[in-house]
Amino acid sequence: HKVGKIVPVGKDGKEIPGALTPEYKNDPTDPTKVTPDESTPSIPGYHITDNENPGKNPDGTPNNNTVTPQDPTKSTYVTYTKDPEPTKQGSITVKYHDTTDNVDIPGYGTTDQGNENDPFTYDPTSDLTDLKGKGYVVDGEVPTIPNKFSDIPQTFVINVK
After folding, report:
1. DSSP codes joined into one string, 76-103
2. If you write DSSP's letter for every residue of the chain in order, what string do you get?
3. Which of 101, 109, 121, 139 has CB 3.0 to 4.6 Å from 161, enough for a Cys bridge?
4. Helix/strand/coil for 129
5. Model-level pTM?
6. 74 and 59 in contact (C-beta within 8 Å)?
């Protein structure tokens, strides 16, 4: 007997391109039926969000990774949702470098981490004023420090002498 298959679809009801669509298997003891609890295909980057016709675990509870068709001659559409993109993290380090002695000055600057596009706040004015009081002057230009994290680590060096 002709049987249906499991068809992975997105929330819009359209088939997910490239996804496997496994056919039900005829029950060897009764060709008018199919074997119960067919496994849904695993699709990288997606998870099942709606399966109106779940199979059963051995304890009788629903299992959204299997399907037992109501009508084995028709396909069962299983809704998948695209997995969220992982949150990208970055860091920003601001340090002060003494170009006369070729050393970083401890106790000044900052290092912080955050998710991509999260706000970052650091104003070098206080550190520069304190260093000026210790006889330092800016050596070159003060780099523009971003006000948001990116998805990569960033380091900004303020040279003083």
Report:
1. EEEEEEEPPPPPPEEEEEEEEEETTTTE
2. ----BEEEE-TTSPBPTT---PBP-EETTEEEEE-S-EEPPP-TTEEEEE-SSEEE-TTS-EEEEEE--SSTTS-EEEEEEEPPPPPPEEEEEEEEEETTTTEE-TT-SEEEEEETT-B----THHHHHHHHHTT--B-SPPPPPPSB--SS-EEEEEEE-
3. 139
4. helix
5. 0.53
6. no
Splitting the chain (161 residues) into consecutive groups of 10 residues, what average pLDDT does each group show?
Answer: 85 90 85 77 84 56 69 85 86 97 97 95 96 97 96 96 97
CA angle 79/84/89 to nearest 5° reads 170
